[in-house]
Design a protein that fits this description.
heterodimer; A: 122 residues; 79% helix; B: 290 residues; mainly alpha; two-stranded antiparallel ribbon
């Protein structure tokens, strides 16, 4: 009986984790899509050249000038951060559940993602 | 600066997102060949564009599958520990390989996918609890003994499917290979992940698709980040593609829950085979002229 309760409790935890991850993905994707649409509107739906991605250092000032490339750059960055956010959300949920193994795995994945950024400059 | 027609790119994205999420193969198998063959975009830029688009597709699909509880998040996270290093290796290999070699490798992968879709009998095991096969789910709660054991409700058979996970080292190895292929060719890697999880690890098909989508989002992000900082991502290409794949993925994911689409798989398989031949010819032409 205890075993059945334990399993039912585990199912509840899995569902909660799925809901949190699903919500983080939804927010990230929708924000990114809205930004891309705004960027395309700023170019008159392709009537003007968009240009290249804006470097991170120039991004804030370009955004203030409503530069289309800057808006799309930000959208791409938000999109790339969305799967990262699902790892962060999963890590937080697992820390709350005191699941040390899987919160450690989440941390390891975040480190690998950080390494991928560092090595891309090599 | 690379420019292409916004509406054509959005249409390519829509088609790739729709078929990719419906067939569980990822849109990259369509995006890369069309961008390189039809729009004459260099293959490294096509791969980078494909990877960023797949992040959008897989996030959209993963969100819906996670909401439906098809995703085994713990399993996905565990397998990603080998997939992500594979993705870094693949992205670096792609930067140093000649475009002709990349075209040739891509063609070989496409031929394999076409073979599994058209000629070969479907070897993946769908969720039928009555079948005696490696992926048969265990429907008694007492079978849920391991930490990675999971369950989900399948509306198609009106039943809650419980399953265990086995052969984890095999899954980790397959995931590493999937990571390399993903970043090397700009694909999601589902063509390796799905058979590994379904046939090798005994995970029911719908749980494998949900978990694979969750993983692909992370894997392609690693590859896309490397390409992004190396300057292969172009806003003029990526913006319409993202919109297209987003809309296609929403539609495809909804349709995937209602259909198995065997006829669609075969038609698409033929299309993939023709594309593979064109890419092989292109690779051979480059090899012969250099």
């Amino acid at each position: 009986m205890d075993y059945v309760k334990e399993m039912q409790n585990k199912d509840k935890k899995e569902k909660r984790l799925n809901i949190w991850v699903s919500t983080s993905l939804k927010i990230g994707v929708y924000v990114s899509i809205v930004m891309v649409v705004i960027g395309l509107i700023l170019t008159g739906f392709g009537n003007q050249n968009i240009g290249d991605l804006v470097p991170l250092t120039q991004l804030p000032s370009a955004l203030l000038h409503l530069n289309a490339a800057a808006v799309i750059t930000l959208a791409v960055l938000i999109l790339l951060l969305t799967p990262v956010s699902q790892i962060v959300v999963a890590m937080v949920v697992m820390l709350l559940e005191k699941d040390k193994i899987y919160s450690g795995i989440c941390l390891l994945l975040l480190c690998i993602l950080a390494i991928s950024i560092v090595v891309s400059f090599v | 600066m690379i420019e292409a027609n916004l509406w054509i790119l959005a249409s390519i994205g829509l088609l790739a997102g729709l078929l990719g999420s419906m067939l569980g193969i990822g849109g990259g198998l369509l995006i890369v060949p069309i961008l390189t063959l039809a729009l004459k975009i260099p293959i490294q830029i096509a791969i980078a564009s494909s990877l960023v688009s797949i992040v959008a597709t897989s996030c959209t699909a993963a969100r819906i599958y996670a909401k439906n509880n098809w995703t085994n998040i713990r399993l996905g996270l565990l397998l990603e520990t080998t997939t992500t290093p594979g993705a870094i290796v693949g992205a670096f290999a792609a930067a140093f390989l000649a475009p002709s070699i990349l075209n040739a490798v891509f063609s070989i992968v496409l031929i394999y996918v076409a073979y599994t879709m058209v000629i070969c009998k479907p070897n993946l095991v769908w969720d039928d609890p009555s079948k005696d096969n490696p992926a048969t789910p265990h429907n008694t709660i007492s079978e849920k003994s391991s930490l990675l054991a999971c369950s989900y409700y399948d509306p198609a058979i009106n039943e809650t499917i419980c399953y265990k996970v086995r052969h984890i080292p095999l899954g980790l190895g397959g995931s590493f290979l999937a990571g390399i292929l993903s970043s090397l060719l700009g694909i999601g890697g589902g063509i390796v992940k799905l058979p590994t999880m379904n046939l090798g690890m005994g995970i029911p098909m719908k749980a494998a698709i949900g978990t694979s989508s969750f993983m692909i989002a992370i894997t392609t992000t690693v590859g896309a980040v490397v390409y992004y900082f190396r300057g292969y991502v172009y806003p003029a290409i990526i913006a319409p593609l993202i919109i297209g794949v987003f809309l296609g993925a929403i539609l495809g994911t909804e349709l995937a829950q209602r259909t198995r689409g065997i006829l669609l798989r075969r038609i698409f398989g033929l299309f993939i085979f023709i594309t593979a031949m064109l890419m092989l010819l292109k690779a051979a032409h480059i090899l012969w002229t250099t």
